[in-house]
Amino acid sequence: MTHRGCLIGCGFFARNHMHAWTDLPGARITAVCDTDRARAEAFARDFGVASIYTDAAEMLAAERPDFCDIATTPPSHRALVELAAPHARLLICQKPIADTLEDARAMVAACEAAGAALVIHENFRWQAPLVRMKAVIEQGGIGTPRHGRFEFRHKWDVYAGQPYLAEFPRLAIMDVGVHVFDLARHFMGEAAAITCETQRRNPRVAGEDAFTVLTRHATGDVSVCDVSFHSRYDPEPFPQVWARVEGDEGTIELLPGHRLVIHGEAGRVEEDGEPPVPAWGERPWHVVQDSVRRFQAHVIDVLDGRTMPQPSGADNVRTLALCLAAYESAETGRRVTLEAQT
Ligand SMILES: NC(=O)c1ccc[n+]([C@@H]2O[C@H](COP(=O)([O-])OP(=O)(O)OC[C@H]3O[C@@H](n4cnc5c(N)ncnc54)[C@H](O)[C@@H]3O)[C@@H](O)[C@H]2O)c1
After folding, report:
1. What number does the ligand 1 atom closest to the CA of 11 have?
2. Can you name the residues that pair with 253 across neighbouring β-strands?
3. Shared-domain flag, residues 139 and 81
4. What CATH number did the domain enclosing 114 receive?
5. Which of 49, 118, 51, 47 is nearest to 78 (CA)?
6. Does residue 13 line the site of ligand 1, with CB under 6 A?
7. Do residues 11 and 78 both lie within one domain?
8. Residue 190: per-residue pLDDT
9. Is residue 36 part of a domain?
């Protein structure tokens, strides 16, 4: 069965969504919408989509899709999710889910009331080397995880493709914190308390472009999330995640160059974690582009009833709570407990 979808927001990242939908046999985008008509027209022409709209309400009423893929920036997320929930069985919303917990919770409630599934387009946990890392841990390769480190540090000009980022008063935590906090929760479990320090290293940008977060997880275990948009390395590592999880019986690391190293009972085992470059993709984006395809294949599994959303809207509210707690910690200079946030 091929699920019929509508896509809202024909901007920078939606092109990856659309290439991946075109690749996947279980789903087809029948219509696209952007408030900027010229953008919608160029997008539809590039991908051979027949129906173009500038009004999402009109599109949803006319198309009656199985699913709706929302690829706009956060200020529009709540209104679009509330609009689309009664019209589709499943909604995908790009990260960050929203700017406030109030909006995020309202989005989850709207989908629950309408009986629609809400999946957040959180693609880092779907990156090939991180999927492999999780599988090694679940197979007992390092014993119980006790300490995690999740890093995203680079000096790539992210402002060229996403100029709006330079204006955001809340930058790195809301843009990439959502990804690395999702990883910290995915690998180490729920967060109980965090401490955050932020930096603004690039004077051209309004918000914080670097942060370091120390998390105590509910298990008592600890992780560090370390992000910077202004750190020079050669070769430029963007958009690679570096990660390390230490367990009671071993350690697994994701190192520059997509190299996975397992320090286990058998000694050191090294694997190449690099995914292939999609036919429509290019380096250095391929690890992200491949993860978009994996994430969307997962959405088709959810639509087919084979699995549950990863991550769901309700789950992702807890990641947003972690972001907001990070700002609170940085602003007050205090450790923030998460029970109070969720
Ligand atoms: N998961 C990832 O790896 C990743 C990477 C980059 C961006 N993103 C996320 O993707 C989202 C979009 O980012 P982008 O850089 O593509 O933004 P963008 O500004 O390039 O594109 C957004 C588009 O949405 C349209 N739009 C806004 N409100 C609308 C509405 N109500 N109805 C119809 N169209 C509307 C705009 O006109 C614009 O064309 C952001 O939330 C961003 O954080 C995710």
Report:
1. 21
2. 244, 261
3. no
4. 3.40.50.720
5. 118
6. yes
7. yes
8. 97
9. yes
Indicate whether residue 128 lines ligand 1 (CB < 6 A). no
Nearest CA residue ID for atom 2, ligand 1: 123
The answer on pLDDT for 341 being more than 50 is no
Taking only the tens place, the pLDDT of each residue in 168-191 is 999 999 999 999 999 999 999 999
Q: Is 74 in the pocket of ligand 1 (CB under 6 A)?
A: yes
Distance from residue 68's CA to the centre of ligand 1 (Å): 14
Q: Is the CB of 108 under 6 A from ligand 1?
A: no
Bridge partners of 211, per DSSP, are 198, 227
- 71 and 144 share one domain: no
The CA distances from residue 177 to 115, 196, 210, 327, in Å, are: 30, 11, 10, 11
Measured from the Cα of 175, ligand 1's closest atom is 43
Q: Are residues 253 and 329 in the same domain?
A: yes
Q: What would the pLDDT profile of 258-297 be if each residue is shown by its tens digit? A: 999 999 998 999 999 999 999 999 999 999 999 999 999 9
20 lines ligand 1 (CB under 6 A): no
The reply to whether 222 and 82 lie within a common domain is: no
**For ligand 1, is residue 34 a contact (CB within 6 Å)?**
yes
Domain count, the chain: 2
pTM for the full predicted model? 0.97
Whether residue 95 has its Cβ less than 6 Å from ligand 1: yes
Burial code of 157-166, b = ≥16 C-beta within 10 A, e = fewer?
ebbeeeeebe
Half-sphere exposure in the Cβ direction for 62 (13 Å, CA)? 14
**Residue-range definition of the domain harbouring residue 144:** 125-274+312-341
* Shared domain check, 334 and 212: yes
The sign of the dihedral angle between the CA atoms of 228, 232, 233, 236 is positive
| CA 98 to ligand 1 centroid distance, Å | 13
| Residue from 18, 19, 34 to probe ligand 1 pocket by mutation (most atoms less than 8 Å from CB) | 34
State residue 340's pLDDT score: 47
Protein residue with least CA distance to atom 21, ligand 1: 11
Which residue bears the tokens 């570096």? 242
